[in-house]
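Q: For a teaching handout, I want to show students what a protein-ligand complex looks like in token form. Below are the inputs, and the small molecule is magnesium ion. Please produce the holo structure.
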Amino acid sequence: MSAAPVLEGLRHHSSGKVRDVYEVDGEHLLLVTTDRISAFDVVLDDPVPGRGEVLTALTQFWLGRTADLVPNHLTGWRASELPPGARHLAGRAMLVRKLEMIPFECIARGYLAGSGWKEYVAGGTVCGVRLPEGLREAGRLPEPLFTPSTKAVTGHDENVPESYVAEHLGAQLASRLRDLTVGLYLRGAEHAAAKGILVADTKFEFGLAGGEVVLADEVLTPDSSRFWPAGAWRPGSSPPSFDKQFVRDWLESTGWDKTPPPPRLPAEVVQGTAARYREAYERLSGHSLDDWLTEARE
Ligand SMILES: Nc1ncnc2c1ncn2[C@@H]1O[C@H](COP(=O)(O)OP(=O)(O)OP(=O)(O)O)[C@@H](O)[C@H]1O
Ligand SMILES: [Mg+2]
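A: Here is the structure, written as tokens, with magnesium ion included.
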């Protein structure tokens, strides 16, 4: 990884594939979403302009639409609310309450895809939950499932049954996480379906503040979820992803072996991908991204 990014007056805390995290004042973090994009788990050399802004705008949109279900970590996103050293990043920066993070990814699945589909094929269950026979790939589940996974520090996250979460966190907290995860998924999926986007599955992260469960991280973005264009959904095979398929298809067409270094993206693939991200925000929120950015930069 390249040298730690620098923001005046803020200490760099960590960087993931896509985001840079800074310490603010002991009680707050600054989450900065860059335009980096990964495909097949490899970060590409070419950023997608505006991608970080779309991921930030979507998170801000959903946090506003779910605040009645659960309190969340967001305390500022407009330039005037950010630390001075981060104001130029308004639109891709979120000031958040620093939480004691709960060490599980809280995943809700409404459709059978990815690791859920693999587990079902292998043994008829998803995260230990036995499902009816005869379900098809990308098929809609009878009801959304809570399928938690461990947050692996290295390597891949591992699906675990809800009872495992209960053993670690207590039954009461585990069932609260399940209810919140499913409730948030249903809220998002119903809204998205009305806009022509299916949310196949999505991951939430929660933290604790004074014993209270608080929704953290990014929420219902294309990075934390599987978004499918509703019109392309046919149970029996995996639909294309709403946003990343363009990049993935192009990468596949080059014969790349999916190990670094990745091929450089042609300008039209970068532009096409950027347009898909913008469309995802605009469809889901019903607002123009430019209007949101104008507000963020105030
Ligand atoms: N309010 C919060 N308080 C404390 N930590 C938070 C909060 N919100 C999010 N986080 C944590 O901040 C980090 C955000 O980093 P990011 O998503 O870039 O990396 P990652 O998910 O760890 O790794 P990668 O994206 O490379 O797979 C995550 O570890 C997330 O759990
Ligand atoms: Mg993350």
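A: Two things your students might notice: Residues 171-194 form the longest helix (24 residues). The mean pLDDT is 95.
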